[in-house]
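Input/output pair, single chain:
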Amino acid sequence: MLDAMPDPKPATKLVQVKDLKMYFPIHTGLLRRHTGDVKAVDGISFDIMEGETLGLVGESGCGKSTVGRALLRLYELTGGSVTIDGDDIAKLGAEALRKKRPTMQMVFQDPQASLNPRMTVAALIGEPLDEHGGMSATEKLARVYELMDAVGLNRNFANRYPHAFSGGQRQRIGIARALALNPKFIVCDEPIAALDVSIQAQVVNLLEDLQEKFGLTYLFISHDLSMVRHIADRVAVMYLGRIAELSPREPLYAEPLHPYAKALLSAVPEPDPEHEAKRRRIILQGDVPSPSNPPKGCNFCTRCPEVIPMCHEVEPDLLEVRPGRFVACHLVKPETKTPAAGSTGRPEVKEHNQQGEPRI
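Output:
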């Protein structure tokens, strides 16, 4: 008799973000009075499961990079909570936060700007080990070589400086540095934006291989929608500091529900010439409002082609309108399951015989 297959383990929430706000104060006048705030992130909530890649997309200035930095508390949060592996990092003291750092790391957008030009590759990759590892010199060098092998860098390059490498190689150095302390969660802040197209695929494939090998969880921030479709499991679409739509990858790209998501994805070119000829672009009118003075109601109401009067007055909540799909739009209503014809809407009650078996 064959053994029953074990039940799959339930997905674990590694990162839980609730009502995250990140405001930057505006000071004006001779006395530098606080006269307002730039609402870079204005109350967003989402979860990232262990081993998952969540893509975060949106146009420039929507708050994507601010979210990534806030999640690692590189900024002091204005409001909300960020729980990573059971700890609310917004409430951790300085020493507790320092001990938490190995769990969460970041790969920055510009590898040239994020690497110290006066340090060798071995020193750059080994710096986190000096801060947190407590290893001997021999152990540290062995770990540096191990990390260089993992990201595809030749060990003979360990004593070279960043200027001697290409953009893709520099990004590999940044990825190796992020992996040094065996993190669980990595924020990838547009890691391919500064690279040539020919190198982008190599870096994304490397990230996928490392995720599979080490069980990593990613927040992948990008404006390259085609690359996000390749790497992400779920995608969050941001606009002016808020999440407009959060959906699994394939349903979002097949049928976006939010008007802004529709416009954004209509700009993605199709590789098939026949489909490309039929593609209908949605051109948004006007400019993005200032995050220091967002519009009342829905923040997309000033540019939305489907706007209704309610949009100018009431801010929509991010609601689950389909299984696993969350949309912040008054026009997208949650699906309601209608009972089948002849059904009373009540659960079916079966008759049983004396042995407790259902009657046919």
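The two ends are 28 Å apart (CA to CA). The CA atoms of residues 259 and 304 lie 7 Å apart.
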